[in-house]
Fold this sequence. Notes:
Chain B: Keywords: Cell inner membrane, Cell membrane, Membrane, Transmembrane, Transmembrane helix, Transport. Chain B: It is found in: Cell inner membrane; Cell membrane. Chain B: It is a multi-pass membrane protein. The structure holds two protein chains of two kinds. By secondary structure, chain A is an alpha+beta fold. Chain A is built from nine helices and 20 strands. In chain A, a hairpin with a 2-residue loop joins β9 (225-230) and β10. Chain A has two domains: 4-250, P-loop containing nucleotide triphosphate hydrolases (Rossmann fold), CATH 3.40.50; 258-369, CATH 2.40.50.140. Mean pLDDT of chain A is 87; it is low at 1-20. By secondary structure, chain B is mainly alpha-helical. Helices cover 78% and strands 1% of the residues of chain B. Chain B has 14 helices and two strands. In chain B, α5 (97-109) packs across α8. Mean pLDDT of chain B is 83; it is low at 1-6 and 272-276. At the A-B interface, β6, α3, α4 and α5 of A face α9 and α10 of B. The structure holds adenosine-5'-triphosphate and magnesium ion.
Amino acid sequence: MTPLMSLTAPAPDANAAPGPADAATVELRGLRRAFGTTTALDGLDLTVRPGELLALLGPSGCGKTTALRMLAGFEHPDSGEILVDGKDVTTVPAHRRDAGMVFQSYSLFPHLNALDNVAFGLRMRRVRTAERRARAAELLELVGLADKGDRFPHQLSGGQQQRIALARALALRPRVLLLDEPLSALDAKVRLTLREEIRRLQQELGITTLFVTHDQEEALSMADRVAVMRAGRLEQCAAPAELYARPATAFVAEFVGTMSRVPGRLLASGATVEVLGRRLPVDGTPPSTGDGADVDVLVRPESLGVTVDRAGEGRVLGTSFLGATVRVSVALADGTLVKADVPAHDAGRPAVGEPVRLTLPDRPVLVAPRAT
Amino acid sequence: MARLTARPTPATAPWRALVLAAAALYFLVPLAASVVFTVDVPGRGVDLGAYTRILDTEGFLPSLLLSLELAAATIAVVLLLLVPAAVALRLTAPKLRPVVEVVCAAPLVVPPIAFVAGIGTVLKWGPEHLSRTPLFQTFVAVQNPDFPVVLVLAYAVMALPFAYRALDAGLRAIDVRTLVEAARSCGASLPQALLRAVLPNLRGALLSASFLTLALVLGEFTTAQLLGFRPFAVWIVNISGSQAQMSVAVSVMSLLVTWLLLLVLAGFGSRRTPSSTSDRK
Ligand SMILES: Nc1ncnc2c1ncn2[C@@H]1O[C@H](COP(=O)(O)OP(=O)(O)OP(=O)(O)O)[C@@H](O)[C@H]1O
Ligand SMILES: [Mg+2]
């Protein structure tokens, strides 16, 4: 692993934090950017810790790409600032930002072969030919394409092109690695392997990385922390497990993983909710809608139990086989659609049209104001 | 698509041959007739005299050279004008593209006669009103018969529609913005990014823009004739009045010269530039 070491070794700073291999801290403060009447970023605050992989997750058009491009220096904020290691880089031009970027679309230079693509940045920095070749070859090796150095982009598959683009982005040993949906143009299988490979590389190099995606599974499986954005703002930034188990807002709850809304009633103290015929404690602060208010209880499909029961108030609308589990769609008496996962080997798997009863475990539940 | 053209099904093959033959007839028969006319002297059999006489005729070489110089200058002007404009258009103001398209197509709509009449008027009017200013000298210099800059300017305008089309097609094939951004994130300044990442990928487009401009300048007659200059096309027409056989010989030769130049340009363009990191042995 000696070649790897040389890739991660910027001269150690005297007062550097003991973070992994002197990785950078990135802070976005109150970033705002409007394009005409659309507000792409509306006061985005975000801190990326040294050496972590932070996934930027959010629905289409919420400003993920804009945020990333600002960090890369391609876009300028109307207000707010960007700090790398505490230094304001907002006015630093893109080519001096020290940020490697992998784009969503294939962005290799069509006139250069793989090796020259990777060596492009080194050439811009006037690195000598011999050294350049050695470094580029080393990087190609790192992404597992050592034998494809003389291929041109059009002779490479999509996955291979993105790997080369990754090698190119890493060639200048950037402090920050920016990935804008690098896998979205690839087919599912390549996506999975490349996802793991990016993660492995990132961990080996210990480089601070921002990964934009709108695929929640990708975000949850790869990232150290996931930042969920909505309409140009940060909703929540937390580790994947926490994000899934304890979403801070109803938006996060429904965006990350599958969430069903079950109608319930908030009881007097506001600390208990009546749902599916039981009383359960409310997780976190309940919405301030007053006593006896109608609310929605947010439940994950895997925490709902389904039992066939003639007196049940739910009716099975459909089932879909997901491998280990079967997802059952149930319509409640008032028409609400609820999704529940039951183990696939379960003998008592409900059939379509059957009446069923839904049960919740004895745990605190998340509550959101009733959706209209 | 490529596979379709490479392996024609048996059913389509005869059609292709037929179309090819028809096209070949259409082009080759007049050409062959011209060649025969120039070499076949009644009663004396084949005689290449018409061709050898060309070289001795007064004005052949100067007019050909003038045309080539004009072509080179026009290509330079058109590319220097269009390439930065078209790239900037893609990078910063894509909404202005239709406007530029219309402006660049405008020379096609203006008849050459009207165009020349306009230029002629300006050239006459200018010296009269500006005789006591330094601009007067500019007007004289622009019309220097050894190298009429005014023709370069006129040709640049006339070549605009073709060159723009060619360039636009080239730009359409690449994602200029992403390429520039990728280069910039690799540490290239904006000029470097354009020079190293965008221009090399436009080689085909630059080449075809140059092709079209070259062909236009070599064949242009109206403007040069009416403004009183004597590039190759004007010279051909001038001598054709006196010597019918030789003028056809000249036409055949000018065709060959043009093809030769285009071939040279094409060879120049398709040669792989050795990329500095990998191909050095
Ligand atoms: N150059 C631009 N000009 C005008 N509007 C823009 C521009 N760039 C982005 N926008 C707008 O800003 C908003 C945020 O765009 P952005 O590309 O950051 O979204 P995103 O989160 O990356 O979405 P996606 O997941 O679809 O890529 C969108 O409404 C978009 O239309
Ligand atoms: Mg985007």
